[in-house]
Please model this.
Amino acid sequence: MLRIYGAPKSRARRTLWMAGELGIPFEHKSFVPRAPETRTPEFMALNPNGRVPVIDDDGFILSESMAINFYLAKKHRSPLFPADSKLEALTWQWCLWETDRLDRQVGTYLNHTAMLPEAERKPDIAATAWKEIVAGMDVLEGALAKSEWLVGTAFSLADLNVASAMFQAFRIDLAKWPYVQTWLNRCWDRPAAKKVRDMQTQ
Ligand SMILES: N[C@@H](CCC(=O)N[C@@H](CS)C(=O)NCC(=O)O)C(=O)O
Model:
């Protein structure tokens, strides 16, 4: 049985969303990032980084949420996994791009504008992150202005992996990027995504 470690309010949302799309059964250990459960020797043996998500798929241990989704989609022969090698390469392109250009930047920006106690917020860090977010969003906007989906002609692993990372971007004013906003809503309106949203509020 697949076991997923990680609270829905963490990058584990991506894994939970994928499991929902696949309709596969799983056991869920909703460990919150940095919680004591993620610092035990047992957990550190699963992921020496002490981070979530991690999966244990009948003894196969894997961390890194994007890699987990590639594995699960391929293993379960999901139509979300691109059959064509060029489409697969484009999926990698978008996933690696998001990790490089937007992932930490969005979190850093929100931390230093809203999440951290006011005394710990650093406007210069927020400003640098925002500059990078604007550049990244402009690139995404350009791609989504040309095509409804990131890769191919339907929702796929690329959309899932990138849109799940950008859940936090709902807290940013996206008015400047209407195609991104519409696409993000379209992705997060899927039943499997809505289920993860509901889990986040429980
Ligand atoms: N690149 C990793 C990032 C994992 C990650 O940073 N997870 C956060 C929660 S969203 C975490 O567990 N942080 C705990 C820590 O930094 O100790 C992935 O996508 O899985």
Observations:
- Residues 61 and 80 are 22 Å apart (CA to CA).
- The domain at 85-194 is CATH 1.20.1050.10 (Glutathione S-transferase Yfyf (Class Pi); Chain A, domain 2).
